[in-house]
Amino acid sequence: MDIRKTFKKWAAYQQTIRELSALDNRQLNDLGISRADINRVARDHANSF
Which residue ranges does the record assign to the YjiS-like domain (predicted)? Predict the structure, then answer.
């Protein structure tokens, strides 16, 4: 795996964590996820690259 792809995945993971963490529990619930799911959702998103 090249360093650019690794960095892109890491950046996507971090951004997803930041954006989802900024939402309140009601907003997360509207999206169908809980606060405990944030890391998994971010990891899945980053791995889609």
Answer: 3-38
| Angstrom distance (rounded) from CA 30 to CA 11 | 25
The range of the structural domain enclosing residue 32 comes to: 3-46
- Sequence-distant (≥ 6) Cβ neighbours of residue 13 within 8 angstroms: 42, 43, 45, 46
Please give the tally of structural domains in the chain.
1
DSSP 13-39: HHHHHHHHHTS-HHHHHHHT--GGGHH
Kindly list the averaged pLDDT for each block of 10 residues, start to end, along the chain of length 49. Answer: 92 98 98 97 95
The pLDDT assigned to 49 comes to: 85
| pTM, entire model | 0.89
